[in-house]
Amino acid sequence: MTLAESVLTGDRLALARLLTRVENDSPEGRAALTDLFPHTGRAHLIGVTGAPGTGKSSLVNQLALHYRKLDKRVAIVAVDPSSPFTGGAVLGDRVRMRDLSGDPGVFIRSMAARGSLGGLAQTTAAMTQVFDAAGFDIVLIETVGAGQSEVDVARLAHTTIVVEAPGLGDDIQAIKAGILEIADLLVVNKSDRPGVENTERALKSMLDLAHPTRHVFLHHGIEMTVDAPVPADVNAPMWIPPILRTVAVEGKGIAEVAEGIARHAEHLRAGGEWAERERARLRSELEALLQEALVKRFRESIPDGKFESVIQSVYDRHLSPWDAIQMLVNGGQK
Amino acid sequence: MTLAESVLTGDRLALARLLTRVENDSPEGRAALTDLFPHTGRAHLIGVTGAPGTGKSSLVNQLALHYRKLDKRVAIVAVDPSSPFTGGAVLGDRVRMRDLSGDPGVFIRSMAARGSLGGLAQTTAAMTQVFDAAGFDIVLIETVGAGQSEVDVARLAHTTIVVEAPGLGDDIQAIKAGILEIADLLVVNKSDRPGVENTERALKSMLDLAHPTRHVFLHHGIEMTVDAPVPADVNAPMWIPPILRTVAVEGKGIAEVAEGIARHAEHLRAGGEWAERERARLRSELEALLQEALVKRFRESIPDGKFESVIQSVYDRHLSPWDAIQMLVNGGQK
């Protein structure tokens, strides 16, 4: 039986082994991915992102428990160095993880390396495909949500949850700058802490900027303001990310988050956006693979040492980087 | 006079214009970069990275003022959404920025877009080259230091400063996971706050893990421990990142940081590492440009709509992504 076949029968050991091969981008891993690919496209991929300290690991944990009660199989992919799943966190988180370990309906996988071959987003995409093919209904992808690669990872998901917490102050602005536009749900975790209203208000005003619902127009020469949401297209109702409160360590608000996720999935399916996101995801995967294949083929086509000698010419300022590339790609012609 | 020539004469307006062209990756920008390239290789590139809230913008600000007193020309490239230079910060920071504005020996540039064409690291690399050619002695590159792209940006620098602050607690671990290995200097800013010793201790123990100086060996059957640093190569003394305290908003500790930077530059030059870093930097720049050129050439070589129809086949699960790429790259052969 091949590794892919074993994974399809539900063999956890084979699954773990395959994930390692995929992470190392081995030829065997790629072969298995190819075999598994026809079985993909069924899982709901949920990205959970936020700054360290927002408690998003606990939220992921609780969501997993929630879905287990509904008898859904849940995979967790942790690409956050501060996650207890990747080993960077405090004892409390580790203890809470025990709720999940030993349950055959749950599989937790952390990304060992950042910026590994093919890039973080590409490796994560391949891993979620393995889980998808292996029959996991829900794949939770946890990222730290600050850098571009984390944003790329979040883009893999059908539904992206951005987690915030009171008391992180001015930094909200920083974190949100790049990430708010990809948020489908906003969760204010640790909402039993002081400052929760401030955090909500900050998120709300940033949302209003991102999704303007206030319309100013002239009526008989008088400036009028309307505060109602006006969808851009009547046939495609707009999704306004809800702001939800949780206290994840106590399991508070989790059902509401799960309900928000379900409503978002319905919204995506109703408007055809689910298919659109799938397509966008496959497109960027193909683009990354294409890039890699082209570079590999090119590097094999030039003599050993050629690239090194070009680097030396650039280092000596005899060639600019741009001229060097023109020369290389156009076969010796500058 | 070309844009590049104007930049070389010290024309600030031309410099600003060129930076925009470079950021937009326009053909004119590339042409100018090519012309400027022979004039590069003189500036000291200093990366300053750390989580939002550590006050690294203030540190950058103060370092710039310090270098101005030594009559060095200073450029600041801010690639951090929370930086006052990019517009994400509180009033106090903006006020402090006035110390620098109006000084013709200082040029501040923020990166408008994240994940722009060619990638953040590539755009930043091109910008530092412009400043280098334009005769700036010091280029300070400020990044938020959490994601892979920020790490990539930091790798551009000869000297990388990682900024920490007391009271950010457990998150130190998170931030440091990927970043400690690239730190040449560690700065504990806001060191007048409580908890500074804890922060220092945490950094110290993480440094010890990264740069082990404790050697355990058997001597006549007894386990012995030596705490002295033993350089791997006697001819190349090891650089142990110093941990320095600052209160940047009051200018405290800045001279010591500048001295640490100078010592690090000496260390790099003495051991040949300066050239090594230059070479590594040019290598990754060439690799990124090569990738881009190959993809561009390939996309132009296939018929319009071909790539789209392949995406459709993958979406329909008729082809796996890997088979699709093999087919595309090998000209129709699966």
How does this model look, in words?
2 copies of one chain form a homodimer. Chain A has a 7-stranded parallel β-sheet with strand order 3-2-4-1-5-6-9, with helices on both faces. In chain A, strands 7-8 form a two-stranded antiparallel sheet. Mean pLDDT of chain A is 81; it is low at 88-92, 113-117, 170-174, 213-217 and 226-234. In chain A, α2 (12-23) packs across α3 (27-36), α2 (12-23) runs antiparallel to α6 (120-133) and α4 (56-69) crosses α10. In chain A, β2, α5 (91-97) and β3 form a beta-alpha-beta unit. The first copy, chain A, has helices spanning 3-8, 12-23, 27-36, 56-69, 91-97, 120-133, 148-154, 171-179, 196-210, 254-270, 273-301, 306-315, 321-329; strands at residues 44-50, 74-79, 106-110, 138-143, 159-164, 185-188, 215-219, 222-226, 243-245. The radius of gyration of chain A is 23 Å and the shape is globular. Chain A is α/β, with parallel strands linked by helices and 334 residues long.
